[in-house]
Amino acid sequence: DARVTQTPRHKVTEMGQEVTMRCQPILGHNTVFWYRQTMMQGLELLAYFRNRAPLDDSGMPKDRFSAEMPDATLATLKIQPSEPRDSAVYFCASLTGATSHEQYFGPGTRLTVT
Amino acid sequence: QKEVEQNSGPLSVPEGAIASLNCTYSDRVSQSFFWYRQYSGKSPELIMSIYSNGDKEDGRFTAQLNKASQYVSLLIRDSQPSDSATYLCAVTGTYKYIFGTGTRLKVLA
Question: Could you report the per-residue pLDDT of B26-48, keeping only the tens digit for each?
């Protein structure tokens, strides 16, 4: 069945290291979102793309975070350098954009920065 | 004022009762409204969407929307212990979703 996939599912890294998270949206979905979820802040929108073009990345710390869609089947979120405060669950979600505004989430990447 | 507000709970209801979850939003131009269920350690799962005023029913779930009062609610009939989760309200005007912080529901067996 169609679903959003994310890799890795878990990542533990040391402060200062680069972290790359990947997302494969549902085939045919043209809008992709990156969210971060923490207990304190809840679900925060970091960035989103439509037809691979970035529409809004105002939620991302620009100095260390970057998001791209190299092709329609892959979205990436990179953190360089990582900091302990980046520890969170990062979700990718996608929607068709054509007939529906219903977003579907991937399983998430749980990031721990020590 | 937060853009989407929900009572964090926990809301505790006995098994078989109706659980009522509420959400208010601040942006009057919001057009689409969604309820997501999130089990602990899992990703949000879409359970209901509603776009026009009134009620929308799907099985044991009913979403209610009142744009004039800027609130959307979710009723869960015949609540089951498996309904115990955090319920997130989401609102969007275009493609930018705003999520509430969620209401934790506990259904007591």
Answer: 988 888 999 999 999 999 999 99
